[in-house]
Amino acid sequence: SAVISQKPSRDICQRGTSLTIQCQVDSQVTMMFWYRQQPGQSLTLIATANQGSEATYESGFVIDKFPISRPNLTFSTLTVSNMSPEDSSIYLCSAGTDRANYGYTFGSGTRLTVV
Amino acid sequence: GENVEQHPSTLSVQEGDSAVIKCTYSDSASNYFPWYKQELGKRPQLIIDIRSNVGEKKDQRIAVTLNKTAKHFSLHITETQPEDSAVYFCAASRPNNFNKFYFGSGTKLNVKP
């Protein structure tokens, strides 16, 4: 399975600023996703990062707030824009191929605190 | 979209006992059901999965069962050990949907030595 490096691992940011999270996979993957996990809660899918085209966002998430890039098959970024304390959370990327459904690998996560 | 419900939210067992976690899903087209284990402060790790063409799958002390008619699936851990203590998440996905996973709310398993 793919190995994912995610950075930064944590950050404390001022409200109103933006943070870009990077996700690097050690092999080419078809699918990359971004999730948010509030402390002690489940994983909520933010969007599917599509290579070479605009990301597909889930209900409740918009491109202006969470712009995503995916320039190639091994790399993606998620930006959390104009941050507020409500954006404090853990953000995780996930990656895999779409061959015959199988579980995807997760990055180690970015713990974001907005003050 | 898919709605996955998971029970119980917390489960405490004595070391050596069995633990069962149950999930239901709403989308009858869902055909793939992975289970993830997340230890405190770490990333979710895939521990077992099942596809809709089988009813049960086993891997050493863990097993998963699927009832497509009732739209529910369960994780069974036998001979629990303290290192099994973690949060477990079930998930469901369906074909032709970019393989997106919809996760259950999680079960915090505590195995008491």
Keywords, please?
heterodimer, A: 115 residues, mainly beta, 7-stranded mixed beta sheet, 4-stranded antiparallel beta sheet, 11 strands, 0% helix, globular, B: 113 residues, 6-stranded mixed beta sheet, 5-stranded antiparallel beta sheet
Structural overview:
The complex is a heterodimer of chains A (115) and B (113). By secondary structure, chain A is mainly beta. Chain A has no helices and 11 strands. The model of chain A has no long low-confidence stretch (mean pLDDT 91). In chain B, strands 2, 4, 5, 9, 10 and 11 form a 6-stranded mixed sheet that branches. The N and C termini of chain B lie far apart (41 Å). The radius of gyration of chain B is 14 Å and the shape is globular. Helix content of chain B is 0%, strand content 54%. In chain B, a hairpin with a 2-residue loop joins strand 6 (56-59) and strand 7 (62-67). Chain B is mostly beta strands and 113 residues long. Chain B is built from no helices and 11 strands. Classes of the chains: A mainly beta (115), B mainly beta (113). The A-B interface holds A 1, 31, 33, 41-45, 48, 56, 59, 92, 94, 96, 98, 101-109 and B 1, 31-32, 34, 36, 42-46, 49, 51, 89, 93, 95, 98-106.
In short:
The complex is a heterodimer of chains A (115) and B (113). Chain A has 115 residues and is mainly beta. Chain A is built from no helices and 11 strands.
Percent helix range of chain A: under 10%
Elements of chain B, N to C (H/E): EEEEEEEEEEE
Q: Helix segment count of chain B?
A: 0
- Per DSSP E runs of 2 or more residues, the count of β-strands of chain A stands at 11
Low-confidence stretches of chain A: none
Taken from the alpha-carbon principal axes, the silhouette of chain B is: globular
Secondary structure category of chain B = mainly beta
DSSP strand content of chain B: over 45%
- General shape of chain A: globular
Mean pLDDT across the residues of chain B is 93
Oligomer designation: heterodimer
> Largest chain interface and its two residue counts?
A-B, 24 and 24 residues
Radius of gyration of chain A, whole Å: 13 Å
What share of the residues of chain B lie within helices?
Answer: under 10%
Distance between the termini of chain B: 41 Å
